[in-house]
Amino acid sequence: MIVRRIVALAYKEWREILRDRLFFTLAFVVPAALMLVFGYGLTLDVERIPFAVVDQDKSAMSRDYLHRYIDSRYFDYKGDVASEREIEPLLADSRIRLAIVIPPRFQESLMSGRAVAVQTLIDGTFPFRTASSKGYVVAINAAFNSELLGSYISRRLGVSEETAQAMAQPVGVQLRYLYNQEVKSVWSIAAVLMMFVLMITPPFLTALGVVREKENGSIYNIYASTVTRGEFLIGKLTPYAAISVINFLVLWLMATQLFGAPFKGDPLFFFLASVIYVTCTTGIGLLVSLFVRTQVAAMMLTVIVTIVPSVLYSGLLVPIASMAPGAKFEAHLFPAMYYTDIVLGSFLKGVGLEQLWGKVLALLIYAVVLWTASFLMFHKRPKS
Amino acid sequence: MNGGPAENRVRLYLWWSRLAAMTAKELIQFGRDTLLLIAIAYLFVFDTYMAGNVGMQLNHAVVVVHDADHSAASRELVYRFRPPYFKLGGEVLDNRAGQRLLDSGQALVALDIPPHFERDILQGKPTDVQVQVDASNTVLGFLASSYAAQIIGQYGFDQTLARLGVTERSMQNVPMIRDEHRVWYNPNQNDAWFMPIAELLTVITIMAIMLPAAAAVREKERGTIEQLLVSPLTPIQILLPKVIAMTLVILLGTAVSLFFVLHGMFDVPMKGSLVLFFAVTALYTFTTAGLGLYIATIARNLAQAAMLAILVLMPMIFLSGAWTPPEAMPAGMREAMVLSPLYHFIEMGYGILLKGAGLDVLWDSLLGLALLGMVIFGFGVWRFKRQFG
Amino acid sequence: MGQAALVDNDAPVVRVQALVKRYRKQMAVDGASFSIGRGEIYGLIGPDGAGKSSLMKAIAGVLSFEGGMLHVLGEKIDSEAAAERVKGRLGFMPQGLGLNLYPELSVEENVDFFAQLRDVPPEELARRKHKLLAMTRLGNFRDRPMKHLSGGMKQKLGLVCTLIHEPELIILDEPTTGVDPVSRRDFWMILTQLLRERDVTALVSTAYMDEAARFHRLSLMFDGRVLIEGEPDVILREVPGTLVELVAESQVEALLRLETRFPQAEAVGPKLRVFVPGAVPQVARAQVEAQLEGLMVNEMQAVAPELEDAFIALLQRRQPAGQDDAQKSRLWLDGDPPKGDGDAIAARELSRDFDHFRAVDRVSFEVRQGEIFGLLGANGAGKTTAIKMLTGILPPTGGAGTVAGADMRHASQAIKERIGYVSQAFSLYQDMTVTENLRLFARIYGVPNSRLAERIGRVVALAGLSGVTTQLVSKLPMGIRQRLALAGALVHGPRVLFLDEPTSGVDPIGRRRFWEILVHLARVEQVAILITTHYMNEAEHCDHLALMHAGRVIADDTPAALKAALQQEAGQVLDIAAEPVLPALEALEQAGFADAAMFGKRIHLLARDITAAEARIRTLFAERGIQLLDIALRTPTLEDVFVYRILQQEQQEASA
What we know:
The structure holds three protein chains of three kinds.
Chain A: H1 3-19, H2 21-41, E1 49-55, H3 60-70, E2 75-80, H4 87-92, E3 98-102, H5 106-111, E4 116-123, H6 127-157, H7 161-168, E5 171-178, H8 185-216, H9 219-223, H10 229-258, H11 267-291, H12 295-312, H13 325-333, H14 335-349, H15 353-377
Parallel strand pairs in A: 1-2, 1-3
Antiparallel strand pairs in A: 3-4
Helix pairs in contact in A: 1-10, 2-8, 2-10, 6-7, 8-10, 8-11, 8-12, 8-14, 10-11, 11-12, 11-14, 11-15, 14-15
Chain B: H1 5-32, H2 34-51, E1 61-67, H3 72-79, E2 86-91, H4 95-103, E3 109-113, H5 117-122, E4 127-134, H6 138-163, E5 177-184, H7 191-222, H8 224-229, H9 235-266, H10 274-298, H11 302-318, H12 331-336, H13 341-355, H14 359-388
Parallel strand pairs in B: 1-2, 1-3
Antiparallel strand pairs in B: 3-4
Chain C: H1 2-6, E1 14-23, E2 26-36, E3 41-45, H2 52-60, E4 67-72, E5 75-76, H3 80-87, E6 90-93, H4 107-117, H5 122-135, H6 151-163, E7 169-172, H7 181-198, E8 201-205, H8 209-212, E9 217-222, E10 225-230, H9 232-238, E11 241-249, H10 251-261, E12 265-268, E13 271-277, H11 281-291, E14 296-303, H12 307-318, E15 343-354, E16 357-368, E17 372-377, H13 383-390, E18 398-403, E19 406-407, H14 412-418, E20 419-422, H15 434-444, H16 449-462, H17 478-490, E21 496-500, H18 508-523, E22 528-532, H19 536-539, E23 544-549, E24 552-557, H20 559-570, E25 572-579, H21 581-590, E26 597-599, E27 602-607, H22 610-624, E28 627-634, H23 638-655
Parallel strand pairs in C: 3-8, 3-9, 6-7, 7-8, 17-22, 17-23, 20-21, 21-22
Antiparallel strand pairs in C: 1-2, 1-4, 4-5, 9-10, 11-13, 11-14, 12-13, 15-16, 15-18, 18-19, 23-24, 25-27, 25-28, 26-27
């Protein structure tokens, strides 16, 4: 291993990247732009669900009940329709996601001490939105019911309204959201996006960089010289890894400064773990580049091995914990999942090596395996 | 030029003949690229299949309990945290231990039942159960807290009703609202009906942008574009066949994915008109390809094209409602979504497949898509013409 | 280190024994054997796909092989580790103009990078860099990005980069392909001088047969095997025979008759060239005369054959060429559009500016139907730009022109429909078969479906492609690919053909086949052909030549007139053989023979007064102890013309 040769290789690569202005710009713009768009655009806080109402009672009580929806920030009132039949086209056209049908004699029944069924029709196309909508409906109903029950108890047992309310709701819930008190999805998403962006850009940069050298023939300079395989791989990839580390720092700043995500962990630990992760993803690109001959093929293969798993199996959108065993197993095969835990742990939980050593170890093993495989697969005297 | 009708007919025939020849060429080249074929087959078949195996639902989330009461009442409450949403992860001796399990991610929810829980309920004294939720993953945090609150609320309600001596049968005589929600289109909220469709439409988008961009950049890199430029082909006749060929390939992939994976393996319903679905897919692919062509005019090599494609693709997908519902978008973004062609496509895709909607309902989305498509495609062609015309 | 001492100095630097290299099922090298001694310039020649590149890569240690033995610099190369041990002592330049260099980096950065890869110490690097850049005249372009260099400069830079660590063995794969004659001469001068100075061994492959004369020894490869090995003269003796040159009326008829008896007959411009194997001059003349009985024959001359003739004869023994030659096809049937006459191409004061740089500067010329027009010039002289304007790809900044009867400013679409074009780089689709490519272009050019099969059949026969119609283009050798490109350009029956370096990198046999077709097209079918080339012996085929330099046409005439003008202006060409040749050249230059230059192993110079010049040379050589082997008068070749004119221009620019 001669450091001077590695430096020469890295320096040459760096200047080549630098002179391809568009590529160089994109290498920095793409991650930042992704962060910006997703940071603002990708939230999971379902709000303003458009809904319509069929109020067949039109009483004071039905309006009181409906106003709990209309006044909620979770719902967006789109108007009244006359009959149930008019709901279907609205749902089909996605103009509304939810419809509430209040039966005739709603007020009368409740006043006379009878239960009333209120129907809600929910658009089920997006299960997560459906679950959220259902949750909101249940919560509003529960609140309304406990008031009804309170006055019922007060009337039936002759206790004061206050006591009755307390009796209607004997068990309160003290909810504490740990790590992300306001359940701001932008916090966790900004953090997780770092995982995403660092999963996608380094392999692309690396795979295309190496394959380009193979495709245009300058790789023969390396084959024909005394540069060792290790020197070449390290020298060639250092600039790409460096770009990714710079990107990582920019993203870190964006997450904390722009999106206000709290960083509670140990910066040094986080930085080092991230460097290992970048080494990992750079290694993925390297391995891809050794399998293919053309840049088109490199591009397609990189899409397959990075974008898809990093969306589906990283915990970005779909929580690992809620996966079926098969999918969970696959998630464990990709490094993204481990880094997601490290990011969330460092940002929101403020835990460090003590709790996360297992994940760091997994990444480390991953990196070692990738680089060793690449090292063994790269030959300076290939078969063709 | 004096254009008699006969001459015009010849000219028109020539135009189509050239287009057909170029389209055949694109398809032949496509068929020879084994690796690309494998990649496309993977994305259309395996990838959509994988997407059917994941979902955004609370599934056996681990709940640890610190039960300071150890009474029948507390046990009954704890017992209600059960599959499919929750799974009991055992009891801890103090809150600290619970906190540690949350920190290390081994548990999602920590339930803390206070002492004298049963006594307080029996005496009608309000008591609080503390629920700590790991909200670092917002989806899980939100769902877990929502379900936990529902369970505990229902538990309290049941306790009250029991104390009042209300039985199952006499429930009708308590003034309360019975929640009768009905979920349409996907009554079981089966994620396998949602995710694969979203993934399929995403894959279509990736293909529609990347394939024409790669094909066009490859001609530029290999110099074959020169031979076409000295021929009587117009820029449109060079570009259009690429888009037509890719559209055909994508339609084929979509059909395979839809019939064998979505319908075959996950029983995704196909309620609406399949003709309409494929027509919309064709229109969408065709127009989105304009973006790919635009990229091809900017990029000098494939590395640049790949980066540009990511730069365009990712926001388009994120702003489409494929991964997050539009209702989860912040105010400005929700309006910006109408600019993503994928948004319209997804609305129509779900509309046709799951809701059985027809043109009478979807005409506005179709119009939006067509308008956007015309602008995008026109822009791509204009750039290409300016560069090579 | 001890091992190195054991290696004796006379041991061969490279020893190849029955080497076998296979790509999957395809055999590339099939038992090749030869050895290269220290200080030799060893040549590898042979048709495309003969296995030269594979063999060179194997020797350079960048390609594994399946069978046989290989020793390089005393090391047995049988593993990656063994190859690594000698890589520090060898340099390798792969095929392709500047492809192994880094386009974004400047000249100096490229050199520095190669030096650092090879652990050249900084002081040493500075010294060598200075010397090599001065020698290659790249010193003034240190900061220019490599992508902005001309082809010849790229090649010289490639050489500098390969030599910067002073290797003992250098391996150069077709280093001069696609390079103009002046740069090619520079390249060889530098190489010869450096090898002499440092006692370096070189293994070089080339597609230019005139360069083969510069090799000490060479191997002719065919089908993965070494067909013949030895010194150029020895090989020449291996193929005895006589070359007969003549002018006959009519040429077409004469050629047809000669071809029936002699496999190597070709039309070169107005002349016919026939190789008569195994015959002494008198016998050869008699045989040719007998064959041409009844035709008017003039200027018959019997001369010694050149290496190229010998190689083609050797290769044809192996690969009887031209089953499909017999059925010479025609591009048009009698019912087809009439053959045009008059001007096919006319350029008037054409100019084209790029940013602040004028690529083509008021260029005018005319090409008539049935004429072959050659556009010559160094890389970057503006030939390709001129062609692009005439074919309607690039709008001109100024000037006018008509092509195939259409005005290039207004009717570029009409021009595109009427012309055929073969570009510099092969630009048909490699992942499609021959027929698929031809069908595509036929349909693009509007050949009606009913005539598709007939037209394709016609060009397939014309270009001699009938054996390969269902093959993928990527599997075809270069020579056949170029004929396919020509067939593609002809499939719609154009009256005007533009060919931009169509034969670059094609082997001699392939080039001859190619020209046979071109000559047929021009002479028989009256197609107007505009062609650019770096092979000066190909330029002899042209009826008319224009020589371009820095965007301008500096000479424009028939080949004969150009040669005559050279003799008028600068005198006769003296062809000198001397030993040792490099000091001889140096002596001549110092004595004021400014145009003295190497041609193969010999020196050419121009002199007005032959007797006086010869006397001066004799005394000069006697003074310096140089042995004069031979001195003779020669008719100038087009290469003499080209080199003289370009150097003249460069001198004028330098003094201006």
